[in-house]
């Protein structure tokens, strides 16, 4: 990876990666244990 050109884009990318990891670990309120990570993400975005 060549790196980021500005701090804002690096911050946004890292925030998105951390959000995905939290969804995968089931650390977000309102998730169901039996659903896939994609289904939990879709349900969170629909709310």
Question: Your description of this structure?
Answer:
It is a single chain. It is elongated, with a radius of gyration of 13 Å. It has two helices and no strands. The protein has 47 residues and is mostly helical. The protein is 62% helix and 0% strand.
What is the 3D shape? elongated
* Distance from first to last alpha carbon: 35 Å
- Give the strand content: under 5%
Radius of gyration: 13 Å
The overall average pLDDT, rounded, is 81
Main traits of this protein?
47 residues, mainly alpha
Quick summary:
It is built from two helices and no strands. By secondary structure, it is mainly alpha-helical. The model has no long low-confidence stretch (mean pLDDT 81).
List the helices and strands and how they pair.
Blueprint: H1 7-25, H2 37-46
